[in-house]
TrEMBL record:
Pfam families (alphabetical): HypD (PF01924)
This protein's record includes keyword Oxidoreductase: no
Keywords, in A-Z order: Iron, Metal-binding
PANTHER family xref list: HYDROGENASE MATURATION FACTOR HYPD, HYDROGENASE PROTEIN ASSEMBLY PROTEIN HYPD
Species: Akkermansia massiliensis
Family the entry assigns: Belongs to the HypD family.
Tree of life domain: Bacteria
Protein name in the entry: Hydrogenase formation protein HypD
């Protein structure tokens, strides 16, 4: 692998003739880049921008507030991924709600929550479904399984979001628009390349699907640079061992049976047309927000006062450029979601780049 990395870096040094900015839109890639020190190895003039590639980070304050509210209701058990526990809302986070008596359980998968609902028929079990298209098929499968088993006490608070509409939103912005994108390999493994190819052609912006190891990332960056230098604009695949052009058709069909697109507020970005998923009408009986008539938050701000997480998520600043970074904002006391999520850019910089 070391020889391959050296070869790719050498090719990049020869390929870059002018300044370029490439954005990765996957939090796992951001952490890999930071932990491997890849930015420091790139040739001068080639800059990486960390985009809104963390579904936990872009989950709206309103949805966090609904989750907190549900966890505090008598008889309700709120099941959540561990990353969601410290994401701040206007009414605190799930960790503080648990300390106040809320019933919150950490789960590794929605199927685990279905099993819990089956063994605890006296409880209303709500799974806080967060993630890109990568995790949505598992949520859909869990709902279908709960219905097949007759578990009427299982429902979902849906916070799933879709990546291509967010990329489209970013490319419509004048400020901070990157020259090329590294598309998220895990999402493309499910959804394929079609949407990214369409965006690359429409906005004349190169894209490369890539993974998480150093050769994957460098190969994707090299693909983007060569396209930029040659004036090309298409989607290329640097992660072919996992990503096929058509994606995973079975997973896509599973999602379509349960979800449909909706406009969604992305924390730090704003309203993204088609950026979210909601349950189809025939599945609304398992929609926790409707079942428990969760109220909308009156709190309009995305983050705590002064927090610059929105600028970090848009790639306008780096985490260390925020005046709160590492001082009044840490993983144990976060002002914004990117500091506490396992895929957040601020958390990556805090862990690997504080010096």
């Amino acid at each position: 692998m070391q020889e391959e990395v050296q070869q790719l870096l050498e090719e990049l040094r020869h390929a870059v003739t002018r300044p370029w900015a490439v954005m990765e839109v996957c939090g796992g890639q951001t952490h890999a880049i930071a932990s491997l020190g890849l930015e420091e190895l790139l040739p001068p003039g080639l800059r990486l921008i960390h985009g809104p590639g963390c579904p936990v980070c872009v989950t709206s304050v309103d949805l966090i507030d609904q989750a907190v509210e549900l966890s505090l209701r008598p008889g309700v058990v709120l099941c959540s991924y561990g990353d969601m526990m410290r994401v701040p809302g206007s009414r605190g986070d799930l960790f503080s709600a648990k300390a106040r008596g809320g019933d919150v359980l950490l789960m590794y998968s929605p199927l685990e929550a279905v099993a819990f609902a089956g063994s605890h028929p006296e409880a209303e079990v709500v799974f806080f479904a967060v993630g890109f298209e990568t995790t949505a098929p598992a949520t859909a499968l869990a709902m279908q399984q709960a219905r097949a088993l007759g578990y009427a006490n299982f429902s979902v608070l849906c916070a799933h979001v879709q990546v291509p509409p967010a990329l489209e939103w970013l490319m419509d912005q004048d400020e901070g628009r990157p020259d090329a994108f590294l598309a998220p390999g895990h999402v493309c493994a499910i959804m394929g390349e079609e949407d990214y190819g369409r965006l690359a052609a429409r906005y004349r912006t190169p894209m490369a699907v890539t993974g998480f190891e150093a050769p994957d990332l460098l190969r994707g960056i090299l693909m983007c640079v060569r396209q930029l230098e040659n004036g090309d604009c298409t989607v290329q695949n640097a992660y072919g061992r996992y990503v096929k052009p058509e994606g995973n058709r079975a997973a896509q069909e599973r999602m379509k049976e349960v979800f449909e697109p909706e406009d969604r507020h992305w924390r730090g970005l704003g309203l993204i047309p088609g950026g979210g998923m909601r349950l189809r009408r025939e599945w609304e009986g398992m929609d926790a927000a409707l079942r428990f008539e969760c109220g909308k938050s009156a709190h309009g701000a995305d983050e705590a006062s002064g927090c610059l997480a929105g600028q970090v998520l848009r790639g306008l600043i780096r985490p260390a450029e925020c005046p709160f970074f590492g001082t009044s904002c840490t993983p144990l006391a976060p002002l914004g979601a990117p500091m506490v999520s396992g895929e957040g850019a601020c958390a990556a910089y805090y862990r690997y780049k504080r010096s």
